[in-house]
Write a structure and sequence with these properties.
The chain is mainly α and 313 residues long. Helix content is 67%, strand content 1%. A hairpin with a 5-residue loop joins strand 1 (36-37) and strand 2. The protein is rod-shaped, with a radius of gyration of 33 Å.
Length: 313
Amino acid sequence: MSGETRHTIGDLALRTGLSVKTIRYYADSGIVPPTDRSSAGYRLFDAGAVARLELVRTLRDLGVDLAAIRRVVNHEVPLHEMAAAHAEALAVQIRVLRLRQAVLTVAARRGSGPAEVDELHRLAQLTTRERGRLVGDFLDSVFAGLDGVPAYPGVIVSMTPELPDEPTIEQVEAWLELAELCQDETFRASMRRTAQQYAADHDVSGLPRPDAVAVVRDAVAPALAAGLDPTTPDADPVVAAVSNRYMSLHGHCDEADLRRRLLDRLIPASDPRRDRYLDLLAVLNGWSTGDATAPAADWFVRALRHRMPEPVG
């Protein structure tokens, strides 16, 4: 319409905040072609062109490339389809950036050298299947040959991490640390010994019963909270209560044998890496963290060792 307002490139620059050079480029490339020209040959744009330019600016701010924008403004592809495709691409980019940020955060915190950074980056890039193989190999090394214990299938499931498709930075960091633990041969051996001792505590037929770690954790908690020294006489009632409880559950009457058996079960459980694994697992799987086992086990190990006779000779 002859009465419709026409805008020059300078007008558009003032209205949109874009530079004259940028608007001229959009006009020359056909993304926002001029509606008309003035008698002096200047390009003029109508309200439709202004709206088109505003859309182009918005899409560019959102990171959409010019080729995709041209297809949208030329009605070659619906805007919603293009938006969905770019949203999906951004999601992939965000996940990659999140992984990179986690690797760099962990490396900075540890003061890592080149070799450790390479390993952290490798662990962060593992596929779902590769992560499954790494964890599966760890759990196989811990529980192999112990599948006769009825509770183990559930225990294995409860120890399996699941990194979400869209993990947080904290979850990626947790995965990196947990993956390193899974590959630590000394940690594997410690967890293997814990599993074997758990199986030995369930070698008596009958109803399920608490193992040594559970008995100690429950009984020692008040002593820990009170800051009780395990080597003092004040700790004697706690030691006696645990010993009597464990004896009644598992039928051990010899005091020396009972203490040796308790030590065998509690020394692996006092490894703080066991609690750390479970804490990392909780972060990855979105679970609440449980009570730490290592402090109670360590307290009772010190209490037992203090009360055991010195070896002769």
